[in-house]
Amino acid sequence: LEKQFARADLYLFELLQNAVDDGATMVRFAVKGDSLQVSHNGRQFTPLDVLGLSSVGLSTKSQQGKRTIGFMGVGFKAVYKRYAKVCIEDGMYSFSYQEPTPHKGGYGWVMLPVWKQSQGGSQETLCHFSLERPRGGMQSILRDLSTLPTTAPPLLGRAALVKMEENSASKKWTLNWNGKLHVVERTCLQQYTNNDSSEVVTVIITDRQGLQSQSKWLFVSHKYMPSPSARTTYLQATKRSHAGAEEVCAFINLAAPPKSGRVHSVLPTKISLPTSMHVQGSWLLSVDRQEVQDLSDNSWNSDILKALPYLSVDFFRWAANEKLEDYTKIMGTLPMPGRQNADITEILGQSISLRGLQQAFYTQKILPVAIPPSKDAMDTMCSNNKNTDYCEGERSMWVPPSFLKWLKPGLLLDWLGKMPLRTDLMGDAAYHPIFSSCVIGQLDPLPNRRLHLCKELLGRQREPDIQTILQMMAAISDAYDEHPDYTTTSQQPEQKGKKIAKKNGGNNTTSIESKTNAPRPSLPSSINAWPVFLTESGSLVTVDHIALPDEDFALVPQDLAELLRPYILKKEEPQQQYMHRTFQKKRDKKNGNRGQPMKSKPTLQRLHPSLQEAIIRVERSSTVTGNPETSRAEEGAVTSSVDWDQLCGPASSFLKRARSYVPSNVVDVPSAVSNLFDYYSKQGRDGLTNQCKTTVLSITQFALEMDNHRLVSFVLIDDVESSGTKLIPAAQAYVGKSLDDDGPGSDLQNVAGKSLPYISLEYNAIIRDSSTMRKKLWKLFSHAGVQTGLSVDISAVGDVEQDRTILAEDIIPHLPEKKLPQLRKNPTKNDISLPYGLGKVMNRRKYTSIDAQLSNEWERLVNSMSPESAVGFISLLLALPVEANAHVTAKSVPAAAKCLSGQVETQARMIIEGCSGNHLTVRIAPDTAVPLRKRLYFLPPGQPGAKALDISEAQIVKQLTKAKWLPCSAQSDFMSLALFRPDEALLKPDMSRPEMPVVRIPEYLLMRLQSSALAQALTWGTHSPPPPVMDLVKLTKEATYLLSSCGDSSRIEQIAAQMISLWTAIARAHLRGELSSSDMRTIKSLGKNSNRCIPVRRVLESRGNGSWIVAIQRCVRMPEALYHNAMNSTDELKELTLASLVDSNFMCDFNHSKHNPFFLSPDISKTIIYLVGIQTLSEFQTSSLISVSGLFVRHCCRLEPDVSSRVLPIRASFSYAMRYCIESPSELDKVDGGLKVWVCNTSGSGSKTLRRRWVSLKNGPVQVVLDDSRARRALLTPEMGIQVLGVLNHSEKDCPNAKILSQIDKEIVKYCGIWRLSDSRFVVKTRTQGSGVVIKGASSKIQLVCALLKSMEVDRIRLNENSDAIGQPSEIQNDFLTLSYEPPIIIRHDSLIREFRGPAMSTPVLTPIYALKKKGIILVCGDSS
Measured in Å, how far apart are the chain's first and last C-alpha atoms? Predict the structure, then answer.
């Protein structure tokens, strides 16, 4: 069982199959208790059946004729995989099979029937199976019944109904699946041939709640005669012979066809099919009935597979018979032809022939085709009205669905000559590869029926049907968009010019590109195959024969469009035609092509005016979106029932494809305007007429409105010589004061005078004194190529070998092999011109160097600039497109692309600046990248074009390197600006080089400059300025003044930051050896007279944040560790004092990053220490320490820092500093207002509280005392005017050096005459009023309360000890509960008053109190309650 039945639930389907085989019309599965009850009304058992159930390998089905499945006698045994006991009863026999208990796992057991009492006389005719003792319990039964394959009821029901056609009057088959009732019926039986038929099987499902659902299944059947080898295989596998025909059927769910069908042998197997239909057949299966036997050597199963294509034909027969309107239900049943051979398909690894299917489609009327509608429908003129008929493939034509959406069937029939296939009914399967050339007519190649189409479009009255032409364009565009094998390349400009081979003929096309090699029905791979353009002469041509107006004509006003219409095509004059033919003959003779026909471009024709107008309307509707009035107006222009908005989108897409295919045939508005202006320019050499000037101004006004600079390829200028107005190319004109009276245009005109052609004053008619219009017009002209200020010239040396100096100094040293490269010997195919519009054809025997430089007028302007105007120059300079590629290719240097590739240069020559013998200079176009490298151009052998070698930096780079054009300031001074060269400045501040000037221009401009190729080509910051010693002196004076007068702290921090930069620059200059002896003396002098010149960090004055400035005497270099010798030695006291002052951030340790801002730059730090002479700890003299101590004490008295915390190092520092100050009392005399000390706050509330603060010892607001009596400290009140010291009060446990500090504090307190609270002159007395009365019972109450509190404390301690689990809980006694405890006596007085008297107090301070504890007595006061 384990090997033969992989799944435990297969017994359900085995029982179902047996019931169907036994002719049952009703089958029921029901769960009862812990068992499954199965019953059916099929035939009763025979003795042979009982023997078969009790045996393995013995089946009774071969004795009953041909059965659906099974022959090995193992099917029923599947129940034993789930159940240990099976009871069977059919009214005649009653027996059971039961697994022995206990049973050894892994060993089989004999299926011996256990007979029960016979029920021979029963009226029961049902076969009943009771499946008991389930393995896995009741849940396993419910899990088995949880899923019933959806294909099982229709397939089993149909099989049962086919069996009962002759044996029973019942027309229904029912299946009760644990309360869910399935009723199966057969309907719509159709017989197409002797071997092919179809039917619809209906399944009605009623659930436990009574809710019904219905599904319909389409079955098609095909009979075939098995081959002799198949019969032999069948005999060998089943041990019985086969005679007659064999039937195979396919079925789908009409409501939801599956994506992938399955192989069925009454019930589904594991095998999936590549089509959507399920296939039922007499498959030879594996033992577990889940796999078919090997197809490679099983002829029987192979014959079943070969019949599958005929089943697909039957689906289409059924559809034709039913006149199906939704073919998507059956399209999935079509097999997919192979990629290499369309006549076969791969199914389950076997090659199956499709010739039968192809022949049926080709010869039988089963393919749906579109036919013209009836007369009533035709009167509506709606292209969507169409009827469906059925036709053979040989008389049909495959068309994409979009054709049936947009075009009438009659038009398609006349155009294509065949009936169009109804692909619009097939969904995504409309492009199924089965509809190939061997089944149905194809559009590729397109049928040559242009005359029939033209006749249909023009009609009898020769009036063109423009609507239909637009619909054809829309249909073709949608066809390419929807076809899965093609992609549109018209919207990918980078692919223009790429050669893509066509599938028919090998021609080259750039419009449509195939994405897959699958043999689907194809479209012409070139948009040029469709003859949909109607010419003026009334003929239909392809896109390569017409001049197609660009989509921008939709934006042109009507009067301007009429003016430009004659200039869409330029007719060559006879003289020009003769010169063209002569040139072609010379080229043929030169290239050896005499006598061979020339491939000429087709002669362009004009579109029919109506079609041209319609195309413009389509583009206008596509461009002007969201305007309902415009849409309705355009729709009314073409009488049609189709939606105009829907038509415009695909029609416009087709036109875009057409323009992409032949961009040279597309004429845009700027081209037409350029043709017009060129004509005006030639006709008006002596001056334009007023009408021409008006036209030019009107077009300029339109260009301004459309913001299209290409419409102003020519501009008006005021000619000084003729005093008239001329029209010249935009690139030859300059913007002067008329448009730019306060910018570079004005500067340029002031320099060049009237020698250059400036924009005419005629344009003032457009400006009308509006600054906004002036800016817009200036922008338009600048984009059109008019020189707006900065101009660059391209200079060329035609033959460098003629100038030996240039060759020897500038060329040869920079070449890779220090010699000129080899030149080609033969002439080039085309005349190759030098790049940048130089207009000179290259000579194969000469080398040409090309360089770029600022024009002369701008070079003069740069040399006379101010720092303010330099910002504008930088802006113009960065506006220039530049390139600095050392390796010259067509991609890296676009301006030389045609020269390098050997193509003919068609660009118009720029204005010639100078031409003298071997030298040529031209003005570069504004949109052309300026080369920052000087290059050598020549014609090498073996290449069609030229080659360029990099020589050196261009002249423009040298000009900018030598000129001072960068406004800069020092890093410490942002205000003063001066012009510097690039090698004298930095683009951004560098903390390692603070001495270097930094470019000061607007941030956005600076970012552009930093990222520009121009900045990469220049050298920056190679020349350092002199050391800023005097700047440091100036800042030192300002800092000293501010600090002495308590100036603005933010300014002090700014000066400190500037000093850090200056000191860094001075140190770097010293390291470079650039610091003079005079500078050294100046620096040394800064350390005298307490000048504040050392920037530090985190000092006491800056509250530990930011930077500050101190004198040199407050700087020291402390060792990493201090080693103390004798306890009271002088050296140790000095070390402790300095260390404490450093910890307090008063002294600055330059050996630590905490104070030294230069610490992270060791070289800078060491240099500054050397320059200013910062002392080490051992070098620090006692006199200096006394001076520093005095500074610290005065600092505390002046700034009064907070010393509220006893751990602050400033407390120790104050003690150490006072210790040295009492050695030199003059230091204390320098304190303004007298010596101050820090005092602590006193008890009290509100305004009476004395806060902690610094107070003067002499004449202060309070008397300062030393707190050495805790009891008396608690008695102090604000009214006493006494505050205790917060400093000079170190105890011996405060800190590691507490003993020294405590001794120092005693000396200082004694020196300063500060009283101690323990002094006997501080007297405290308590007075009572009223006679004392003992409060009865109070003693016991006090004892009880204390006992309770003590018990709570004991419990808490014990709980903590238990949670810690460390040792045993300690024995803690409650002393208040012992017999020896004597509670205090409570005595009440009327009042209690405490009296406090001090040495300096004239009268004592009296304070009422409420309780006082004496030995064994508690005194209280108050009333009796």
Answer: 100
Specify the pairing of strand 1263-1266 against strand 1282-1284. Answer: parallel
Q: Which long-range contacts (CB under 8 A, 24 or more apart) does 639-648 make?
A: 639/467, 640/381, 640/467, 640/471, 641/380, 641/381, 641/382, 641/383, 642/382, 642/383, 642/406, 642/467, 642/471, 645/621, 647/406, 647/470, 647/471, 647/474, 647/618, 648/618, 648/621, 648/622
Residue whose tokens read 């080898």: 229
Give 869: exposed, middle or buried? Use CB within 10 Å, 0-12, 13-18, 19+: middle
Q: What is the pLDDT of residue 1098?
A: 82
* Residue corresponding to tokens 């003859």: 531
Residues in the chain, overall count: 1425
Mapping DSSP onto H, E and C, the string for 1113-1158 reads HHEEECCCCCCCCCCCCHHHHHHHHHHHHHHCCCCEECCCCCCCCC
Task: Look at residue 1350 and give its three-state secondary structure.
Answer: helix
Give the DSSP H/E element, type plus range, for residue 1172. helix 1162-1172
DSSP 8-state symbol, 1418? E
Residue written as token pair 């009760």: 176
Spatial separation of the C-alpha atoms in residues 834 and 920, rounded to whole Å: 11
For residue 281 the two structure tokens come to 């057949």
Q: What is the DSSP string of 816-847?
A: TTSSPPPPPSSPPSS-PBPTTTT--B--TT--
| Predicted pLDDT of residue 999 | 92
23 residue type, one letter: G
Element (H, E) at 452: helix 450-458
Is it true that the peptide bond before 102 is cis, omega within 30 degrees of 0? Answer: yes
Residue (of 741, 831, 757) closest to 791 by Cα position: 757
**Would you say 441 and 416 are in contact if contact means Cβ atoms under 8 Å apart?**
yes
pLDDT along the chain (1425 residues), means of 10: 71 88 92 93 87 71 43 69 91 87 63 75 72 91 90 92 71 92 94 94 94 95 94 88 92 90 88 93 83 85 93 95 92 89 89 92 94 62 68 94 93 92 93 87 89 82 85 94 70 34 35 49 91 90 91 85 79 48 52 48 84 88 59 48 82 93 89 88 82 91 89 88 84 79 63 69 87 87 80 90 87 89 89 87 91 84 78 82 91 91 67 66 85 94 92 93 88 74 90 82 91 92 85 89 83 87 86 88 83 87 77 90 62 89 91 90 91 89 90 89 87 91 86 88 71 89 87 82 88 78 90 87 86 88 90 85 57 82 89 85 83 86 76
In whole angstroms, give the CA distance from residue 221 to residue 315.
Answer: 10
Residue 1327's DSSP bridge partners are 1393
* Stated pTM of the model: 0.57
For residue 471 the two structure tokens come to 């619909």
Contact (Cβ atoms closer than 8 angstroms) between residue 1395 and residue 1363: no
Provide the 8-state DSSP code for 380: T
What Cα–Cα distance (Å) separates residue 858 from each residue in 452, 454, 963, 1018? Answer: 68, 64, 12, 19
Q: What is the pLDDT of residue 1204?
A: 86
Instruction: Look at residue 379 and give its three-state secondary structure.
Output: coil
Q: What pLDDT does residue 420 have?
A: 95
Identify any residues that bridge with 936 across adjacent strands, giving them in sequence order: 849, 949
Quote the CA–CA distance of 237 and 71 in Å, as a whole number. Answer: 9
- Residue 1192: phi and psi, rounded to 5, are -65, -45
Cβ contacts of 417 within 8 Å, gap of 6 or more: 397, 447, 449, 452
> Rounded to whole angstroms, how far apart are CA atoms 426 and 430?
5
| Separation of alpha carbons 1256 and 1261, rounded Å | 8
DSSP state of 255: S
Number of Cβ within a 10 Å radius of residue 270: 13
